[in-house]
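The passage that follows is intended for readers who have already worked through the single-chain material. We present the inputs for a multi-component assembly, then the predicted structure in tokenized form, and finally a short commentary. You are encouraged to pause after the input and sketch how you expect the pieces to fit together before reading on.
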Amino acid sequence: MGVIGLGTEGAIVTTRIEQLLNAARSASLWYMLFGLACCAIEMMATGAARYDFDRFGMIFRSSPRQCDLMIVAGTVTKKMAPRVRLLWEQMAEPRYVLAMGGCAVSGGPFYDSYAVVKGVDKIIPVDMYVPGCPPRPEALLQGVLELRRRIAAGELGPRDIESLTAAARAASEAGTETES
Amino acid sequence: MTKPIRTEEIEVSMGPLHRGMEKIAEKRTYFQYMPLVDRFDYLAAMLNGALYCMTIEKLAGMEPPRRAEYIRVIMMELNRIASHLVFVGTLGLDLGASTPFIYCFREREEILDLFDLVCGARMTFNYMRPGGVAKDLPPEFAPKCREFLKKMPARLREYDDLLSNNEIFVERMRGVAKIGADEAVNLGLSGPTLRASGVGFDIRRFEPYSVYPEFDFDVAVREEGDCLARYLCRTEEIRQSLRIVQQALDGLPEGPSSTRINMNLKPAAGEVYHHIEGARGEMGCYLVSDGTTTPVRLKWRAPSFSNLAVLTSALPGWKVADSVAIIGSIDVVLGEVDR
Ligand code: SF4
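Having made your guess, compare it with the prediction:
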């Protein structure tokens, strides 16, 4: 962005529309009210009084249509995976995904379980990983702040949705084939 | 006026959080499995940990020192309060009141701070050990805990103002989904869900374990059997738990907080069942050992799982809008239902 002239009447700022949009997107990440396991309780705690997501313009919404950010908080099991994928598909672009906790990152403590998908990135693309079991609210906040920084910096620009979707669907089918 | 939509029939579909926890137990040693136990009922992880350790102790014929028993009781009751606070907060949230949620989580944070002090974790503690607890209480614990106990009664009155005396909330709960005493017993309900139907069964009182007989507390019972009774039972339980923590803090004996035991524990071959009063009801653990370092079979008796059975008879006939109140009042934790 560049500033042309600063006067008493205000300032003229030149920018690209993408930059402006990215700045706006990063400042109001509405997240989906959607928890899968223990980590969801920590996510709730982060939204409550002491840590307070609201001060970052983050408000939970119950419908995926209204959400920008999906915080995958908890264990993605093989039975749940298609539903997680569906919810992600229902979100409008631009959408971001944050994998919260060891389970969503890589299967976590259930790395050798027959019922668990070893990381949510097997079924949907993930923009930010926050490890921990569960991550403390401070860690989640840091993950969100870093995500905001990357959005504002344009690092998470428009994606090639077609190929992403195809890749993710293939992975999802591979990951859930054992389900009856 | 349009007719309200009513629930006619329901089908409970389980398994979206099935993580294979019982099977995993068969490939871990008794100690290695301990951290996973916390992820079972994650709102009351101290209770899970204590149950697991008590079961192993029963199997191996050990007795923890008295100080450890007292510390366990303090932790279990604090965790029960924290769990009920989440219940009160989210029930309010389900019924459209978002303020109680913020208030309840504020108090819950104070309990989590106490846990943080003791074991460095907020939710998944890994604090209980067969033969005692992982670490003795730090010196700052008792004063901080007393401070909390002093604060809490006034905070409970705040919740009463927000919910128990709130006409909208009460009207949505009173008389909804009544469960009779016979039905409750036949369905195998336990915990506050059962006690709200007039059956005063509390394992802490009727089959005492640990050092519970030494404490003076009342079993919270309500006769009505409706959603409101289930809610009031839990708020009353918070008060009783505060009393227990107070007494345990006052009577905390000196001495060691754990016994030294072999990390490669090999309990003698045999099987054992132990149960405690969890935050949601009768929580049980069935363990079979063949004398090696890993259990042959581990089975959890999860109170939420059994309590869910009531939905098939409690929901039909009520408005769809009531279902959030009914499901909320049973207080299920899905980590425990699906394991
Ligand atoms: S990462 Fe840990 S705390 Fe989070 S859902 Fe998995 S087991 Fe639970």
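Commentary: The mean pLDDT of chain B is 86. Chain B has one domain: 21-337. How closely did your sketch match?
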